[in-house]
Amino acid sequence: MEGTVMVVATMAWIMLSSCSCSKLHPIILVPGSGGNQLEARLTDAYKPTSLVCNRWFPIVPKEEGAWFRLWFDPSVLVAPFTKCFAHRMTLYYDLHKDDYFNCPGVETRVPDFGSTRSLLYLDPKLKHITNYMADLVDSLEQEGYKEGETLFGAPYDFRYGLAAAGHPSSVGSKFLEDLKGLIEMASTSNGGRPVIILSHSLGGLFVLHFLNRNNLSWRHKYIKHFISLSAPWAGTVQEMLTFASGYSLGVPLVDPLLVREEQRSSESNLWLLPSPKLFPPNKPLVITENRNYSAYDIPHFLEDIGFPQGVQPYRTRIFPLIGNFTAPEVPVTCIFGSEVKTPETLFYGRDGGFDEQPEVLYGDGDGTVNLMSLLALESEWAGMASKQPLKVIRIPQVSHTSILKDSVSMAEIVREISMINSVQVLRSVS
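Below the sequence we write its predicted structure tokens.
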């Protein structure tokens, strides 16, 4: 009789595991920097930097106080409007309040929290050139996921970051609260099934810290799996170029110097500077005629590029976060590309200083994030398999952003999610 019970139980488990009608674990998508739309409106306190910004900036509607698209809007590609855009996107660090705030007179909001709508395209009118997560969402929907039922999005204001314990971070902390509520709602509305969090790039840093800021019992109840795509766990050398000389994201019409101050003001960009915990102390990442800078020299680097106001928030708020790889004790899968030319060392000559784009020595990575950073969790969590399940999937010749569109990477992501959904808990039969 006992043997019969065991056979029946085993057959039931096989049927459950292979059944196509088995319920899906809900998925929440967390984008990377620049990966969702932002809206803004101007108040009476707004002081335009030029007549162009005041009288004629195409993205601003005629109705006073109306919301308009701040990111992304194609007008940013035209030089006079680039300056208006950069001014409105700039954050300010208040030394006395120890927190970051918008430009005076500029209010911002993140549309469609809980939905994937603002993650699909950065501008729905320019779907072809601003496609972000549309292909990923389409792939998930082909697997049976449904918007608002089993598939959700968690967009956020990517200019803001988080801060170390004891320091306020009003915008970042509010996002973590909203994310927690969304996870609990998604789980509850799906019969109590724990969720799969799927992040891209900077979103992975937010999720890892989010998990470790909630207690273990909550994590085990609500989190089934965390999948990170192209996460810059230990920062990037590319970010040092952004701070030094500005970064046009490869758009030929944009002068990187016009957006440099705005990019320096971003709290999350400070978070993406190379971590001295992972990058070797004797490896120069930036080489100039007068001085070389490693990951250990970031405060001096910020001073020397002309951004001394970034030193204190970096040291007090950001540095304790960099390289904090506490294991969340929930299953984690890291998927990323490699074998793509990625900035590894920047060389600046005497002429023009940091106002000129550097010569670049390239190494391995995904084109944006260095391989050492992409592999950080594997090296940090080595020997913790029983406590911290970790799977690493490396996809050759797939870049930081193409991982969201490439057919090979889409197949890997879908395969991983299918495997997670197929795992069934075999209950004992008495």
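The first helix runs from residue 2 to 18.
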